[in-house]
Write a structure and sequence with these properties.
By secondary structure, the protein is an alpha/beta fold. The protein has 14 helices and 16 strands. Bound molecules: pyridoxal-5'-phosphate (PLP). The site of pyridoxal-5'-phosphate has 12 residues, from helix 4.
């Protein structure tokens, strides 16, 4: 599939081949990547710290914004501590490296992100997958592994499948099996939970068993990853995780920008409220068009049509109408690809209505 090359982007529009198109892709659920206050914090930070941290945190690469961001993340998520990693992918490597210190078996939901499998294998955990969301298979696997030190792992939100993992039930399974629970909240942070604080808030999870990994690159509109867990566990990660010890952290300026993004996302209900209102509007529009909608209230609308040829025709027609509705192939998704239409808090009512009108015309015009 041809790779798209963007020449510029705004919160809800991109420039592609010299044309500006309304944008309904990516994972910027709160529209923060272009927020003037986030951009300003980055600019001020660049002037103060330069572009790169230039060294690992435990040597000379640590700066005040890194520590401030970790404190802010821990405070808002109501966990003991957090630790920044260069990305969500590396955060999963760090999590697995620490977990492998006192566990030997990882049971991972089969549809979890590749980084969980890669990380667990690289940390030499014995890796088995369990059928997606199938708690009874998970319990059977846990019983068969009695005596072993188990980690249960899953993404918290499966946006392309349209649902949230059964988080409380996973926590009960982990409790019963005396297992650690490793949750990847990359798509949950800024989206689920009463205040958008992610999986921990959504399922009211607390306590020493849970290790959370997440990204700053999606809803928060910045870049980087982090671990969140109890303080003693994060101290161990700081002391032992090679993915932390041997990597350059995100630029301090980016950490400063992420602190502002956290404030915008969570100090007021406005952005989360707008994301939810926009999601509800598009959901109602999809139902009218008889297109599939997610089971849970998620801002990602993923669907395939009967044939690749029809999807190509609808994609081209939408582009001609001024809309970029991504047609993607992603590991684990349908072989022929699928549309992945994403709503953000930054979309205006007019933009959402334009999307729904254009979709109606394109689907009718390309039967
Ligand atoms: C569920 C999940 N985990 C981890 C990652 C990796 O995060 P990052 O892009 O910050 O490396 C992604 C990114 O797409 C993801 O969707």
């Amino acid at each position: 599939m041809a790779r798209l090359t963007l020449q510029a982007s705004r919160a809800t529009a991109v420039t592609l081949e010299g044309r500006e198109l309304a944008y309904f892709g990516g994972c910027g659920y709160l529209g923060l990547a272009h927020h003037p206050r986030v951009v300003e914090a980055l600019t001020v930070g660049l002037a103060r710290y330069g572009v790169s941290s230039g060294a690992a945190r435990e040597t000379t690469g640590n700066a005040a914004p890194h520590e401030q961001l970790e404190l802010e993340l821990a405070r808002r998520l109501d966990v003991g501590a957090s630790l920044l990693l260069p990305e969500g992918y590396t955060a999963n490597f760090a999590a697995a490296q620490v977990l492998a210190g006192d566990h030997d078996l990882a049971l991972i939901d089969e549809h979890s992100h590749a980084s969980l499998f890669d990380a667990a294998s690289a940390a030499r955990l014995d890796v088995r997958s369990f059928p997606h969301g199938d708690l009874s298979s998970l319990r059977t696997l846990c019983s068969a592994a009695r005596g072993r030190r188990i980690v249960i792992a899953s993404d918290t939100v499966f946006p392309s499948l349209g649902h949230i993992a059964p988080l409380r039930e996973l926590a009960f399974c982990a409790e019963d099996a005396q297992a650690a629970l490793w949750l990847d909240d990359c798509h949950g942070l800024g989206v689920i939970g009463a205040h958008g604080l992610g999986a921990l808030e959504h399922a009211n999870l607390k306590g020493g068993r849970v290790v959370l990994t997440a990204t700053l690159s999606k809803a928060l509109g910045c870049y980087g990853g982090f671990l969140a867990a109890d303080s003693a566990w994060i101290e161990r990660a700081r002391a032992t995780a090679q993915a932390y010890l041997g990597t350059t952290p995100i630029p301090p300026a980016l950490a400063a920008a992420a602190c502002v993004a956290l404030e915008l996302a969570f100090d007021q209900v406005e952005l989360i409220g707008r994301l939810r209102a926009n999601t509800a509007l598009v959901r109602a529009g999809f139902e009218r068009l008889e297109l599939p909608v997610p089971d849970d209230d998620l801002p990602v609308f993923a669907f395939a049509l009967e044939s690749r040829a029809r999807m190509d025709a609808v994609f081209a027609d939408l582009c001609a109408r001024g809309i970029l509705a991504p047609l993607i192939r992603y590991p684990g998704g349908p072989a022929q690809g699928n549309f992945r239409i994403v709503v953000s808090a930054a979309h205006s009512l007019e933009e959402l209505e334009h999307l729904l009108d254009a979709l109606r015309s394109s689907l009718r015009g390309n039967p």
